[in-house]
TrEMBL record:
Organism: Chitinophaga ginsengisegetis
Name of protein: Regulator of microtubule dynamics protein 1
Cellular location(s): Cytoplasm, Cytoskeleton
Signal sequence extent: 1-20
Keyword RNA-binding: no
SUPFAM superfamilies listed in its UniProt record: TPR-like
Family matches, as PANTHER family: REGULATOR OF MICROTUBULE DYNAMICS PROTEIN, REGULATOR OF MICROTUBULE DYNAMICS PROTEIN 1
Amino acid sequence: MLKRIMAVCFLLSAVLYVQAQSASEMVAEARQLEKQMKESEAFEKDKEILKIQPSELDALNQASQLCSRIGNRQKSKDDKISYFNLAKSYAEQALKVNPNSPESNLSMAIAMGRMALISGAKDKVAASKEVKKYAELSIKFNPSLAQGYHVLGKWNYEVANLNAFERGAAKMLFGGLPDGSLANAISNYEKCRQLDPAFILNYYELARAYKADDQQEKAIEVLKKALTLRSITQDDASIKADCKKMLDDLQ
């Protein structure tokens, strides 16, 4: 009887080891697909991984962030919402696995930020509070996480540009929002650039902030630099096209 129990335990251990090894290899494959700018394929790979290991943190975070990016490219608002809800769901699962994970808090900040940008005043303000919370947590747990500063910069930019109706909704529903400013947005974006000088989206957003702050020469300098960078993500080519258009408008 003891031998049978030991044999069963050995077989279970072997199965779990093979699954863990398989999931690890699949995570590497998903990362490679993302690097090859095959984001839909990378997302499908993540879903395969999560069928084997639902708590695989790297797969959960990659799936969340891919959904945020893929969703942002959709044409219809309904399709965007579907992807952003998926992004939020994966981020929630990742936070259950490890609430102190910088990447998981970043995933949630990105998902909520994307949803905020397409929402009405009430939902936008509600999501905005969560964006700031999770972006700050991502930086707290990893002060060198470049995208955490980028999201915080975007939060500052958007709050600084809230219209009167949105500010009224914020005051009525939540007693107002923390102050956001272009100066803080620029500071956050510059910190992100320092930590990750290859992040093209950050250059575009930094240039927008400089332009809004009437610092045209700095905006031009940032845009020119962005156009020299190698595309890394599937979105980078279109972001560089937006940079070129803004640069042409400024010159």
